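2024-03-11 09:14:02 DEBUG pipeline.ingest accepted 1 chain
2024-03-11 09:14:02 DEBUG pipeline.ingest length=259
2024-03-11 09:14:03 DEBUG pipeline.predict start
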Amino acid sequence: MLGHPIAHSLSPVLHRAAYAELGLAWTYDAVDVPEPELADFVATRGPDWVGLSLTMPLKYAVLPLLDETDATVDLVGAANTLIWRDGRRVGANTDVFGLVAALREAGVEAPAGAGVLGAGATAASALVALAELQCPEVVLAARRPAAAAGLVKLAERLGLTLEVVEWAEAAYALRPPLVLSTVPAGGADGLVGSLPPGPGALFDVVYAPWPTPLATAWTGAGGRVLSGLDLLVHQAVGQVRLMTGRDVDVSVLRRALKA
């Protein structure tokens, strides 16, 4: 797992548990790699290396280093996984897989509409996930609406109807039956007093600190909440599949995380 900083990462806990379950004597560690050092790090890996997990901003920085990418990377414009395959560097994105799997596990399928908070890389993954879940309409709240221009184009490619509103109108994005908050910790705290009556489902991608004030308020208002840990375990299942060619049940990773 590469990032800067990276000591806080829970990914080693998840992947090591998966390898133990699969009977693989593999290692997985968190390595602090600043963005300027990424190219050298990738270039100097030996034949015993299978893959890398990447956090921001390395999800963007890795793109020029890849020989090929999967369809999700092409849509989202970010890769959270690098796999060495027959000597080639293959980029993949399991964030979308994780979002979809977590929502389906929670019984969320084909929502009539959705709200998205934020306009970064995770928001792009959210749009692709919503298209896969056959959600027709999305309202997205951005602090800088101009920064959402790429998301508007992405929505057009996906066949989604997307409405972008300024952050001052973010309460409007809390009204649909499904809301995905893709902003960092603290980013949505100011919305706790703007919840609609009888809120639907909230997927808040933050997992530390948890619960967020928005998640607490949402639960208190009777809504259902998923956390960034739900995304973390499901996207890790996708990464394990890419790296090992084998499947591990998400319950194995949840137990490891709890322990």
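2024-03-11 09:14:41 DEBUG pipeline.report The domain at 2-93+234-258 is CATH 3.40.50.10860 (Rossmann fold).
2024-03-11 09:14:41 DEBUG pipeline.predict end
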